[in-house]
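**Protein record**
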Amino acid sequence: MMVMGSGQDKSGVQARSASTPLPFRGETSVTSLAALEFPAVLDVVAGWAKGPLGAERVRDRRPATDPVLIAADLRPLDEMLVLWRRGERVDIPPVPALADVLSRLGVAGSVLNGAELLRVRQTVSAARIAVTELTRVASEAPSAAVRVVPLPDRVVDRRLLESIGDEGEVLDTASPALFRARRDIHAARERLVKKLESILRSAEAQAVPQGAQVTVREDRYVIPIRRDARQRPEGIIHGESGSAGTLFIEPTAAIESGNALRSAMARAEQEELAVLRELTELVRPERRVLAAAHAMCVEGDDLLARVRYAHAVEASVPEVGAEQIDLRRARHPLLLARGLEVVPFDLALGEHERTLLISGPNAGGKTVLLKTTGLAIVLAQSGIAPPVGPGTKLPVIDGIFVDIGDHQSIAADLSTFSAHVVALREILATAGPDTLVLMDEIGSGTDPAEGGALAAATLRALTGRGVRTIVTTHLGALKSLASEVPGIVNGSLEFDAEGLRPTFRFRKGIPGRSYGLAIARRLAVDPEVLATAEALVPKQERLLDELLAQVEQRARELEQRESMLADREFEVGNREAVAAATAEAQGIRERELKRREKDADRQARETARRHLLDARATVEEALRLARGAADSAEAKEARRVIEEAAGRERAALDASRAITEGGLGADKELTVGARVRLPSGSAGVVHELRGDGKAVVTVGVVKLVAAASELTPLAEEPAARRKTTVYEAPSAPFEVDLRGMRGDEAAVVATAALDAAVLAENPYLRIIHGMGTGVVRDRVRQILKADRRVARFAFAPPNQGGTGVTIAEFAAG
């Protein structure tokens, strides 16, 4: 069973017990998740659910702390994501809330109404689809398929479907007795209305309001009569109009018909109640099965919501449980949700690297990097694939502490610095090796010397405990900690020194420059003031800033050289790949041509052999006739038959020799009208010789262009034979099956089938490629699109293969 967040689902059944993930430690972690905007990210993911219960289940997710449970939660997500990226979708319909219905089913003697039974019907129907879908992908997504549960007997489906309508109404088909009762209602109502209409027509015109018609008051059928009418029918008054000028009367003459209608309606209500009771008793024994089926559908919607989100943001399921943080192409999920262009970053913190100190100018993206890192870890532990690339590795933490932003509180009498100190006190008191600490602008809000000293002492303490810590700072004094304390490393976000704008690219091992004076110079601050400011900067910090500037310049030069080398390698590799692909294609073509030549040779030999056998049989028959001839006339006839048979035998031998010896007269030059054999094995006549070394050959009614050097001259046929010989196009199948083949192999076979079909003058060709991954289908459609002989092509009708078959129709003439 896949692990979700803690708590009950909406079916009212406890979905998890011993496997419930442990919560993060302390209230501080809850506050920190809010600081990371974790609930807002859950809202984004929940938006991909099909139903409200699946969406609520996503919103209820919280980080688990057991690596086994986390892996079990991420495994079906990873399996489904593979299917999704291959273009194969899984769909589970949403289900309605069912907790109150299941609760009522637990009360003996209770009867569900139509609306409640409709929810049961919808749940069972959705569960059937869910089981079908999960079973279909069981071989490739076994972790999701194990969630399949038994379903109620199909008698339940059938009875609910024939008894309860889409609005929760009880249908006439629910029982024969109910059908008869409702038919009686219709007949009684029709008789009553006709009676009232007759009374209304017989009343005086002055007594009836304009446009009066039979209506209903207090569940009784009545007619409108003016209050001031001198004569009005006797009966019971059931109400009056708003102006009190019209009375609604049930005439005495219609009371009996009205009572008959009420009686018929009462019988129908009794029959309807009997149907509801029967359906409730049918469903009651399936209560636990219904609860499990409902939970399966809700969990399935939750899973598919996470799959759809991961596919939409191109997220990968990370490896969870590592000893290091290794983020690949990480992006902030809320920035993606807003449609902003997000620059991905890589961040690695090794097993023995516990503290990452990020420095650099404002607006460089340091805070976003902090939040993205924290969100990636807590999302993964919540069973959600964060927007990261393949190869990402993350640790399992049991608590997180986030100190980001201004926590100033007038009500609590806290200044900004005091709020930061309170958070720092909580971190120092609680954080351990399995927690993550994220602090923005550590040591700010007070005197830089004192703030820097407090920050340095805090980082030394946390690093010594083995706490994973990522902090940002502007304090230059902290940048030297990396060289003094093992486990602390510097990092920075790259800044374009010339354009004075951030690039949001993270660089590990190099502290960042503040660029404060450079930005002031760019904004045209008085040069004399800037010169004075530069002179007031301590010499040590000036030297450090100059050194960092040199390092940045050197890094940019190295990146440019690496980029140039990469481009060259790509060009060389591309040329090599193209050459390899060309050579492979040429090899496939040559192998195919050789195969065709062998086939044509074999067919020609078989034809020649058949002709020889036929001729010899004819000769033997003629000799038999000659030996038994009684007069000269029969002898002459036998002689004529023998001569013709001998001529045909010589022609067959000539044809066979021409094939086996490379073509009779192969040393002769080609001329228009000469018979030749093409590389494909087909024989034709030279129609035209071009100056570019190519020739146009007529094969039956088809004209083909081939290199003259590839044509083999054939012996001329006797004139008498040429006059009586009619070209027969080679037979070709109307269908070719490519299933089980790879892309290149399928392309060769499809091309050969097209050539054969065109030569045989077939009007169309059915190409069976199957639905599979779509690779063969796409290759076939590319070939058809590029072939000018194909007039049009489309998928076959659903009853003839649908999208698994493409039918190509050839151009006429």
